[in-house]
Amino acid sequence: MNISSRSKDLIQRHPKNPILTAQDWPYPVNSVFNPGAVLLLDKTTLLLCRVEDHSGRSHLCAARSRNGVDSWQIDPKPTLPPEPDSHPEEIWGIEDPRITYVPELGKYMIAYTSYSAGGPGVSLALTVDFRQFERLGFIMLPPDKDAALLPRRIDGHWALIHRPMTTFGNHIWLSYSPDLYHWGRHKLILKARRGAWWDADKIGLSPPLIETSKGWLMIYHGFRQTAGGCLYRSGLALFASDNPERCILRSNTWILGPETPYERGGDVPNVTFSCGCTIAPDNDTLNLYYGCADSCIALARMSLNALLDWLQKNGSPPEECEE
């Protein structure tokens, strides 16, 4: 097994971090974090941010920027609020959106966590402009979260990455649907490791999968419970282009973890948690937007090609690194 140290040059945190905080919001909120991200057709960066109000419940609010760093234009009220009257699964709020543009539909698909007394589950909504939304409702019953749709069909079926919480572990699964409403053919595609690994206790998808010439690149988060509390870090996995159920490589070390004061201190300390990224027009620069300590939003930049090269050197086939 090839286990080498992380490259400090792989990830560049933006010097203006954190780029968004509760103080930037046009209405009173407790915290902003875990945004979905998309580069719109006019090259504007849109972040659909999880916003926690002073009740403790969350809604989603859009922030737009021409350069993806500053001068954010934030919607003056919640962009996608919970609708508990028509969707009772949202009575305790909606959280952690992941955005996929689906060319076949000409729409953006938002997978998000709906939260209620039954626990967290997965819901879908479609939009063309992030002003009006079509809710498809609950598609994965609790407890389930960390979901995103693939941008194209696989063998004629829509495919969804998600993380059900089961009695035998918190692992990453892939499910299929003919119509976005009915889901089946559930496949476990990546297991949480055990013991002292950085991703030993539970794992989940971070941004939606990124299609590359070498396969589907997954940035995923790993959770480890320590004597000092929880740690959330991010690593990589690569899946076959023609079969996203088949993992080719998995990183042995994490690429991003809590290091700075804004990542280590907040409502939930020691958390770096991403739900979204964008790829610049050069098709190489990856902008990773992530929540820090459940309190603010930061930006890290990296090269997509460098990530793939790093994974080749610092990864192993999954069957070699699950114990």
Description of the structure:
This protein is mainly β and 323 residues long. It has a single domain, classed as 5 Propeller (Tachylectin-2, Chain A). It is built from 2 helices and 23 strands. The chain has helices at residues 261-264, 304-314, and strands spanning 12-13, 31-39, 45-52, 58-65, 73-74, 94-102, 107-116, 119-127, 134-140, 144-149, 158-166, 169-170, 172-177, 184-190, 202-205, 210-212, 215-226, 229-240, 243-251, 272-279, 285-292, 296-303, 315-316. The strands form 5 sheets. Strands 15, 16, 17, 18, 19 and 23 form a 6-stranded antiparallel beta sheet that branches. Strands 10, 11, 12, 13 and 14 form a 5-stranded antiparallel beta sheet that branches. Strands 1-22-21-20 form a 4-stranded antiparallel beta sheet. The longest helix has 11 residues, at 304-314. The termini are close together.
